Amino acid sequence: MSFTVFLGNLPAWVTKDDIKSWLNAENLVYDDVKVIRNPETQESKGFAFIDTPNAEEMNSIIRRFDRAPLEDRLLRANQAQPPKSKGPGVGPSGPVNRTAAGPGPRRERGGRKHKRPGNQNGPQGPASAFAEELAKAL
């Protein structure tokens, strides 16, 4: 099980070393600190992840930093959630091979989508809410 703290609402100037010094000053134990940055500009996105060795240390860090004031803001600290899926068609190793998963949406000549009159759902209706939204977009 992973014991990671999400630390958010950070000013852009906060670095990994800043967070490590705050943790050390409070005698809090951590394994690693990652400040998330924009890959193009290297500017901080305003949040970081702190890996901890156990649940007790994770909870100590959360208690200390959640709603702690820094400049004109309150920090947010809570247990990090696993990353969310990127949506349909994207797997853990990238885009899904569409030919293996079946054909994609039909397109009219010229590559443009045209709205077709009549029932788009077939005799049984849409298979899911996603299919219903897709049918509306076509």
Summarize the structure.
It is built from four helices and eight strands, in the order βαββαβββββαα.
What does this structure look like?
The protein is α+β, with helices and mostly antiparallel strands. It has a domain at 4-79: RRM (RNA recognition motif) domain (Alpha-Beta Plaits). It contains 4 helices and 8 strands. The protein has helices spanning 16-25, 55-65, 98-101, 129-137; strands at residues 4-8, 32-37, 44-51, 69-70, 73-74, 76-79, 90-91, 94-95. The chain has a 4-stranded antiparallel β-sheet, with helices on one face. Strand 2 (32-37) and strand 3 (44-51) form a beta hairpin. The longest helix has 11 residues, at 55-65. The protein is globular, with a radius of gyration of 23 Å. Residues 112-126 have low confidence and may be disordered.
Number of distinct beta strands = 8
CATH topology of the domain at 4-79: Alpha-Beta Plaits
Q: Roughly how many Å apart are the termini?
A: 43 Å
Query: Shape, please?
Result: globular
Order of H and E elements: EHEEHEEEEEHH
Biggest β-sheet strands, sense, barrel:
4 strands, antiparallel
Radius of gyration: 23 Å
CATH secondary-structure class of the domain at 4-79:
Alpha Beta
Query: Which spans have pLDDT < 50 for at least 5 consecutive residues?
Result: 112-126
What structural category characterises the helix and strand content?
alpha+beta
CATH architecture name of the domain at 4-79 = 2-Layer Sandwich
Instruction: Please indicate the percent range of residues in DSSP E strands (runs of 2 or more).
Output: 15-25%
Helix content: 10-25%
Strand order of the largest sheet: 2-3-1-6
* Mean pLDDT score: 78
The total of helices stands at 4
Query: What is the H level of CATH, i.e. the homologous superfamily of the domain at 4-79?
Result: RRM (RNA recognition motif) domain
